[in-house]
Structures are given as C-alpha cells and as structure tokens.
Amino acid sequence: MSALKLFVHNHGTHGDQSLVKTITFAMTHFTVAFTVAYLLTGDIIVGSLIAMVEPAINTVAYFFHERIWSRRQQNARAQHSTAQTI
C-alpha cells in the first residue's frame, strides 16, 4: 500500500482529530476569505476566486502544520517517559 494511502487510511485512529479540525478550519476560512474579498472588491466573482485559492493553499499548509505539531508532542512525551525510566 502506498505511503499516502496508508496515511489517509490510518488517519483519524486513536483519537486523532486533525483531519476534522482541518475541514472545519477550511469551511471557516473560506467563509471569512469570501466575505473580506467581496467587501474589498464588491465583485462576487473576484471574491469567490480569492476565497477558493487562498484558503485552499492555507488549509493544506495547516493540515501539515498540525501533523508536525502532533509528532512533536508525541516525541516530547516519549522523551519524557524515557527520562523517567532512567
């Protein structure tokens, strides 16, 4: 199985909520981006385009940001438990 398929298949196990958080963050971000872009431009097309492009890129970045922080916390817990056993 490919690494990406394994990642998606195993994602969400053991209480991992980062994918759900990413989706809700994306919906919020799309709404805010559209509202701001529309208010600044007065154009529904331009507002829609900006609202689709910028948050889509930001959402992907956020997803990986969450994964990095999650891994960092896991490593810190592992080091802490290793230090206590020594």
From TrEMBL:
Any one Pfam family match given in the protein's UniProt record, by short name: DUF2061
Domain spans labelled DUF2061: 19-70
InterPro entries in alphabetical order: DUF2061_membrane
Domain of life: Bacteria
Record's protein name: DUF2061 domain-containing protein
Source organism of this protein record: Marinobacter salinexigens
